[in-house]
Each structure stands twice: as structure tokens, then as C-alpha cells.
Amino acid sequence: MTIFIHADNRFEQSEPVSRECPHCGAHAQLLPVSTPAFDAMHAYRPHHVGIAYRCAACAQPRFVRVAVRAYEKSHIELSSNLIEVERGRERFQFSYLPPDVERIFRETLQCYSAGCYNAFASMCRRTIRTCLADVGADAKLRWHDLFRDVVAIGKLDDSMARTLESILFGNDAALPELHAGEAAVLIETIKDMVYQSYIRTAKLRAALKMRRFFADEQDSKVTTIGSRVLRAESA
Ligand SMILES: [Zn+2]
Q: How far is the CA of 146 from the centre of ligand 1 (A)?
């Protein structure tokens, strides 16, 4: 793909670009809204410029930073590598969480979205501690089981499993330093554990309650009809 800004300020992008939108979650096209001015760029000759697009699905602004490849008399060529300024937010069904767990877990996911992986690791340990304080310390074994499930299902190797275990369940020992690859595994691990512990439990209980309610209602209707039949026969 090539991007040019022509001397008459015309913006030319050789092919459309689609990205996942941090606002609506759709994989939608980026439509240029505000593009750099040719004269201003030639006057200041910056190495990078900003372009404002809008999301074709939800119309929210999408800001992009891009390197300048070449300044020519008739046009300026920009790099095809569009670097998004806003990162996508991690999604989660927070409404199922108790308020104190929700507050800490939201911040945990925000640390990941911001690329602050070591802050994210510290917040993962704090999330587990907040969850344990919420459900009682005897739940620690259950949380360990949830973690072992992820290790088994995700086929994590021993070294990764040890790193994640010491982050999540370590005592006051220093946390191991975390890189992008390990953080990517950790975020899926902690999201699954919190999901299993709160959301699966709440949904299952609600579904069982609903099934029992309708089953009881059905039973009571059958009894009523049966007693009417009996009354009709005896009359
Ligand atoms: Zn959107």
C-alpha cells in the first residue's frame, strides 16, 4: 500500500485499511477525515505525522501516527505502517463481578491495554487476592485448580506455568519480569479464571433457578388439571 499527499492537499491511499475498532469492536474500514496539509509539512518537514480517520461502523475517530518516507516537489510519500494511537480495550462481562473485584480487575486489564506488562502482572496478583478476600481464603485451592485447568487445556510448558504461577499465587517474593509473549498468555489465563469463578457460576445458578421455576409451575398446573378431572368424575 502507498499513501501520498499531493501538492493540492489531495490524500491518496492506494487501498482501504480495516482494523478492529476499540470503540465498537467491529473489524471495520478506516475512512480518512483529517489529513496533513502539504504546505505545512514541507515547511516543518516532520519525520512523523498524524492522520484522523473515522470508523466506518460506528463513526468514532481513530487516530493514527505514520512515518514520512519522502518529501518530493509534487507529493509527499507516507509509510504504509499505520500505528494506532488508541489501543483496543479488553472486553469482559464486568457486571457479574462484586464491586471491589470489578474495580481492581478493570484496572488490571487497563494496564495490559496500555502495554504496562509488569504493572499488569502486579495487578493480576492483586486481583487474585481481592477475589480470595471476597469468596474466602479456603477458595485458594479452587483457584489453583482453575489455574491448572488453563495450563492443561492451553498446553503451557513448565517454564511458562512456573512463571505465571509465581505471579498469581506467589507470596511477598519479587515478581518475575514479564515480556509481551508471557503477558499475552497471562491475560487469557486470568480472564478465564475470573470468568470460571464468577460468571460461569452466576450464569449456571440463574439457569438452574429458571429451569426449576418453570418445572415447578408445570407441576402445579398438572396437579390442578388432575384434581379438576377427579372432581368432574365424582360429580
Ligand atoms: Zn467502531
A: 34
What pLDDT shows up at residue 228?
A: 53
Measured in Å, residue 50 CA sits from the centre of ligand 1 at: 19
Rounded to the nearest angstrom, the distance between the alpha carbon of 74 and the centre of ligand 1 is 34
Q: What is the predicted pLDDT for the residue at 14?
A: 92
50 touches 36 (CB < 8 A): yes
How sure is the predictor about 235, in pLDDT bands with cuts at 50, 70 and 90?
very low
Span 66-81, pLDDT tens digits:
999 999 999 999 999 9
Distance 61 CA to ligand 1 centre (A): 8
Ligand 1 center–CA 175 separation, angstroms: 37
How far is residue 62's CA from residue 27's CA, in Å, rounded to a whole number? Answer: 13
* Residues 40, 11 contacting (CB under 8 angstroms): no
- The CA 159 to ligand 1 mean position distance, Å, reads 39
DSSP letters along 18-87, please? EEE-TTT--EEEEEEEE---HHHHHHH--SEEEEEEEETTT--EEEEEEEEEEE-SSEEEE-S--EESSP
Residue 225 has pLDDT above 60, yes or no: no
Name the pLDDT band for 222 (thresholds 50, 70, 90).
low
What is the distance between the alpha carbons of residues 201 and 195, in angstroms, rounded to a whole number? 9
Ligand 1 center to residue 88 CA distance, Å? 11
Distance 80 CA to ligand 1 centre (A): 21
